[in-house]
């Protein structure tokens, strides 16, 4: 029992240090919800993300990472979709990852809805 008491002040000190010294990361995406016409440009921006240069950014669409080779802005604070298509509607999240791998923080989600013109899927007889 006496040995257990020795650890309590140390554990309390570590907990206080962690709560006082660790940066709490929470941020959002603007706009939180938007409705656009198909083929128009969409811009989503991370608001108040971690400013530390040791963070890398990655945009997710419906939980899947967007490819920076296809859209270089997928790895930045601001996502620009030059010509949005109907299948790109959905939920977008900006992920900030510490380059040392110790922290991963997701933004609040942004919902993008895309209005598209009617399509003729089959010509009438």
How would you describe this structure to a colleague?
With 125 residues, the protein is an alpha+beta fold. It has a single domain (21-115), classed as Immunoglobulin-like, CATH 2.60.40. It is 16% helix and 36% strand. The chain has 1 helix and 9 strands, in the order αβββββββββ. The protein has one helix spanning 2-21, and strands spanning 28-30, 33-37, 42-47, 55-61, 64-65, 78-81, 90-98, 104-106, 110-115. The strands form 2 sheets. Strands 2, 4, 5, 7, 8 and 9 form a 6-stranded mixed β-sheet that branches. It is elongated and about 60 Å long. Mean pLDDT is 78; it is low at 1-25.
CATH fold call: Immunoglobulin-like
Which CATH top level class fits?
A: Mainly Beta
Second-tier CATH architecture = Sandwich
What string gives the helices and strands in order? HEEEEEEEEE
| Largest sheet data | 6 strands, mixed
Helix content: 10-25%
Number of helices: 1
Let me know the average pLDDT.
78
Assess the beta-strand content as a share of residues: 35-45%
Would you tell me the structural class of the helices and strands? alpha+beta
Terminal residue distance: 87 Å
Low-confidence stretches: 1-25
């Amino acid at each position: 029992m006496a040995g257990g008491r020795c650890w309590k002040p140390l554990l309390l000190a570590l907990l206080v240090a962690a709560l006082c010294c660790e940066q709490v990361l929470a941020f959002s995406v603007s706009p939180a919800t938007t409705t656009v016409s198909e083929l128009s440009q969409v811009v989503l921006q991370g608001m108040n993300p971690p400013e530390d240069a040791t963070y890398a950014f990655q945009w997710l669409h419906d939980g899947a990472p967007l490819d920076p080779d296809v859209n270089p802005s997928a790895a930045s604070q601001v996502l620009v979709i030059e010509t949005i298509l109907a299948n790109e509607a959905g939920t977008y999240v900006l992920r900030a990852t510490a380059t040392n791998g110790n922290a991963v923080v997701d933004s609040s989600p942004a919902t993008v809805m895309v209005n598209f013109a009617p399509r003729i899927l089959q010509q009438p007889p």
